[in-house]
């Protein structure tokens, strides 16, 4: 099974540890263990003391009952029987595609998007068609174009809502329309929802509105806990049952401590979202102000999610530019080419405020070399 290199992950693996100022990441500033536990007054000592005799066996294979119950409560129409724990949303996407897509199937994906959502189907031997998001249309998905690409043998439509890297959102009305189109040919709709928005916006999970809808998600982005590697897949009980077979081959469990930390996070969801809404709103304003003052950059503003995609007006290839920028200033971005969209760069603006301000200042200083 051959597969293309994963542009964004390859770039980050290579360069993130070299960055002095990292404004490339798409998570909202990660919690320390202490910050996470302190959300409800629990101390690190208390947490581990209470778990001192916890057996480090495999624990709950599909995720604990409490984990599943808390995750199910994030949806309008789901219960524990609709949830399986996975190793992050990457594990959830892999599971859903591996279980449902076969060689020769027709799959449709948006572009740009998280590469996993179209490279894994391709690697399985599916025929993948793309619907391109157009910057001049605010990176929106053209529903008529999508409709035109659906075939009688379309097996799956893979979406990323909100979208990485652009940060734009498919609203409830769009998803209802997509579900209706998919229903006509019995296609699955897989939506990677790790960037559920933290502001206004009529967001709905596909698993709540479509019987063949599969929502994948995790605690990595909106919940600021990429390091605990806990995600999930949410879908109908029938599709969940189908997934179990494939899941047994691809993972056993998420790990007992990670499950416990995930429960702690989900119980403290309100406090986490309060913290993160503030970070997103304040940092987005900083980013927008900077774009207004920076003549070589334009931006379709993200919809209160932690990834943004700037357009660079420079006479240099984006990848070379990002590498020079890193070497000369220590500032890390992700080049648009990693998302198959050259002349752009991803700015992960939900890092620490001081880091964002410094990173944007250095980026502007660096861009001045093209004015001479
Ligand atoms: C759309 C999307 N899905 C999944 C992931 C990875 O998520 P996780 O850390 O939960 O595996 C990323 C990370 O950048 C992402 O952008």
From TrEMBL:
EC number: 2.6.1.-
CDD domains from the UniProt entry: AAT_like (cd00609)
Source domain of life: Bacteria
Keywords attached to this entry: Aminotransferase, Transferase
Keyword Metal-binding: no
Known cofactor(s): pyridoxal 5'-phosphate
Molecular-function GO term, any one: pyridoxal phosphate binding
UniProt xrefs under InterPro entries: Aminotransferase_I/II_large, NHTrfase_class1_PyrdxlP-BS, PyrdxlP-dep_Trfase, PyrdxlP-dep_Trfase_major, PyrdxlP-dep_Trfase_small
Broadest EC class assigned to this enzyme: transferase
Domain Aminotransferase class I/classII large: from-to ranges: 57-360
Gene3D superfamilies: Aspartate Aminotransferase, domain 1, Type I PLP-dependent aspartate aminotransferase-like (Major domain)
Protein family membership: Belongs to the class-I pyridoxal-phosphate-dependent aminotransferase family.
Protein name: Aminotransferase
Phylogenetic classification of the source organism: Bacteria, Bacillati, Bacillota, Bacilli, Lactobacillales
């Amino acid at each position: 099974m051959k597969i293309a290199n994963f542009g964004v992950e390859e770039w980050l693996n290579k360069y993130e540890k070299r960055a002095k100022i990292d404004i490339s990441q798409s998570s909202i500033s990660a919690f320390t263990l202490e910050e996470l536990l302190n959300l409800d007054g629990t101390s690190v000592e208390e947490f581990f003391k209470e778990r001192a005799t916890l057996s480090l066996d495999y624990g709950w294979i599909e995720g604990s009952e409490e984990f599943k119950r808390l995750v199910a409560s994030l949806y309008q129409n789901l219960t524990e029987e609709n949830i399986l724990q996975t190793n992050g949303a990457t594990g959830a996407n892999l599971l859903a595609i591996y279980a449902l897509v076969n060689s020769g199937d027709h799959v449709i994906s948006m572009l740009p998007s998280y590469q996993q959502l179209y490279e894994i189907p391709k690697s399985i031997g599916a025929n993948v068609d793309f619907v391109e998001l157009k910057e001049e249309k605010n990176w929106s998905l053209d529903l008529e174009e999508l409709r035109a690409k659906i075939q009688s043998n379309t097996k799956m439509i893979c979406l990323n809502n909100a979208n990485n890297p652009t940060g734009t959102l498919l609203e409830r009305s769009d998803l209802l329309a997509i579900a209706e189109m998919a229903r006509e040919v019995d296609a699955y709709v897989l939506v990677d929802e790790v960037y559920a928005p933290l502001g206004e916006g009529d967001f709905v999970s596909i698993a709540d509105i479509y019987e063949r809808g599969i929502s994948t998600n995790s605690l990595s982005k909106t919940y600021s806990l990429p390091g605990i590697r806990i995600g999930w897949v949410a879908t109908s009980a029938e599709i969940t049952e189908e997934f179990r077979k494939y899941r047994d081959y691809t993972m056993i469990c998420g790990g007992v401590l990670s499950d416990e930390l995930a429960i702690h996070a989900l119980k403290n969801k309100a406090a986490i979202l309060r913290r993160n809404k503030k970070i997103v709103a304040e940092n987005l304003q900083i980013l927008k102000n900077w774009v207004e003052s920076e003549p070589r950059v334009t931006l379709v503003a993200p919809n209160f999610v932690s990834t943004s995609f700037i357009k660079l007006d420079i006479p240099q290839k984006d990848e070379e530019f990002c590498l020079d920028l890193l070497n000369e200033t220590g500032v890390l971005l992700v080049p648009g080419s990693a998302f198959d969209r050259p002349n752009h760069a991803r700015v992960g603006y939900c890092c620490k405020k001081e880091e964002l301000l410094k990173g944007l200042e250095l980026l502007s200083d660096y861009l001045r070399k093209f004015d001479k």
